[in-house]
Specification:
By secondary structure, the protein is an alpha+beta fold. It has one domain. Strands 5, 7, 8, 9, 10, 11 and 12 form a seven-stranded mixed β-sheet that branches. It has a three-stranded antiparallel β-sheet with strand order 2-3-4, with no helix packed on it. The protein is globular. The two termini are 28 Å apart.
Length: 346
Amino acid sequence: MFEIDIQTRTLYAELIDLLQIAEASRSISSLKGSFSIKAVKGDDYVYFRTYNPSGRLDEIYVGKRNDQTERLMRDHSEEKTDVAEMEVKLKRLSSQILAGVQMTTDKAMIRVIRSLADAGVFRNGGVLVGTHAFQAAGLMLGVCWTAETTRTTDIDLAVTRRVAVAIPMINADIPAALDSLQMGFYPVPKLNRKDPSTNFAIRKNQLRLDVLTPKTEESDAPVFIKRFNCAAEPLSYLSYLIESPVPSVLLDTTPVLISIPQPVRYALHKLIVSQIRDMAGDAKRPKDLYQAYQILSVLQENRPFDIQPAWADLIGRGPKWKKYAEAGLAAMEKHYGKLTINLREG
């Protein structure tokens, strides 16, 4: 890995701020579509025409034509200028950062993740938890990782079964978002044909989207989550990872605001993951441990105060949590070196 220069890190902080402002200030001007007016029995009525993620044209009734709807139509036209100016600034910042970090992300994966973001998946509590999250965590910490730890063909998305009351309820239709890309995504059937799919793939292509959720009961059956219109695979130990996620960015010509786990939680969770993989996942175990080591090495230099509380939270969740976390820590230190911080004495 290598450290990112201070100028690029400053640009990154500015980009995150602007992306959050743009997300928070979404208004009618951000909607893609146009108004239309229909005359019915001598009165004019206003409709908004837009295409939903599946590509179907929707016509939304706004109201009778009056001063309020006239103002809404005028604002939609005038505020588009502000939106366009913000997009230009975001693109410029992203290009400057990309030049400083020399990092690339597969264009097909960017299309998929952007589609999920546009559909409201991250605003509705979705969290990227795989290698894309690891890559984004590096940017947050001011480093770029080695190429071998950022290669992936999977997009791992974690979603909770319930959403916080503070988050406005919206529909974030994942299958419709994938269909809109016209990339050939299809739901991968489960061994038990009665179970709904939790994975989406493209024929003759390695790209894959896996939808996950924390396991809350003994059953391993997929859990259908209505607000995403798809099922998710329940996984043990996932709850720790996605608790209190943080905003980050996927760099591209037009950057994408995403949610990822806290870097320290990502690293410590990888220690557990490395110990619970089955035989089919053995090949990924060294990558788990190396990603954990890379993040913890940076944190112990720059943010050592993040590590101990997160570790205490992890091992305090039960005997199995402690057992796997300590086994993963021992394996990591055996292969890549001991940490300056001695977690066993914490």
